[in-house]
Amino acid sequence: MRAPSNGIEIEYETFGDPADPALLLVMGFTAQLTGWDETFCRMLADRGRFVIRFDNRDVGLSTKLDGVEVDMVGLLGALGTRDYSKVPAVPYTLSAFSDDAFGLLDHLGVQRAHIAGASMGGMIVQTMAIEHPDRVLTMTSIMSTTGNPDVGQAKPEAMAALLAPPPADRAAYVEAAATNWRVFASPRYFDAAKTKERAAASYDRSYYPEGASRQLAAILASGDRTERLQALAVPTLVIHGRADSLITLSGGEATAAAIPGANLLVCNDMGHDLPEPLWPFVVDAIASHTTHAIA
Q1: Which of 120, 140, 147, 271 could form a disulfide with 186 if both were Cys (CB 3.0 to 4.6 A apart)?
Q2: 294 falls in which pLDDT band (50, 70, 90)?
């Protein structure tokens, strides 16, 4: 299904009863809505949530800004010296993602929702809560960070895997996915065969490497949210893996420390992913948080 939102179109899917409290799931950098596994979504729906998953702009089946270029050299140069006055214009920031998400909720007739985001999705839900706290029932920030460059720093091998050049064809993409995901996935639960299967399905649904530079620019240009997070009064759960090598644990710790009253849940066996064996644990945590945090 597609919805008009913020001047673009958003591809989305829903699970559960629309009469139940809405839970919007926001996926991360270059990841499609299928990053939230259908079974995971149905598990949440079975706990009495109207679950909404969607493709962010520039990925999946949502609107893509074909041909819009990014001055990545200028952006990285300005951020490297922390001279934010010299940050060049970018196609959009995290605020655009936030507005896209609220536009989708408007289309669905949802005034207030529980929101949960993973990785870049965590940055987006933080932005949503900062900019429109009146529309957020609870927030769950998963394997994410505050935008402060001093916390959550990726290990070099994880960043290299994330930013590796896009493969030339489907077969190379599938093989690269297994190689790269092994670097930052949960070590105890990594399954190369399943990773290849998911990569093939993702490629077939929509392979669009061009969007990566614009999404990365949005993350980098949006800056540090710490001060604004400190003013939040939104019930917040932060979930992070101790084995995360892409956004390391200090990013989650800093997020929880910044938001008044936030709870931090650290999963020892979790990397920068949501492995299937941890779904019952994560679903229980989100269900409990979205039930009791606003009681």
Answers
A1: 271
A2: low
Instruction: Look at residues 7, 16, 6 and name the one whose alpha carbon lies nearest to residue 38.
Output: 16
Whether the predicted pLDDT of 173 surpasses 80: yes
Residue in the structure block whose two tokens are 């709870």: 263
* Annotated domain spans of the chain: 2-159+210-292
pLDDT tens-digit profile of 102-128? 999 999 999 999 999 999 999 999 999
Contacts of 286 (CB under 8 A, 6+ apart): 23, 44, 116, 140, 237
Class in CATH terms, 2-159+210-292 = alpha beta
Res 81: pLDDT: 82
As a whole number of angstroms, the longest Cα–Cα distance in the chain is 51
Measured CA to CA, the distance from residue 240 to residue 256 in angstroms comes to: 10
Overall size of the chain counted in residues: 295
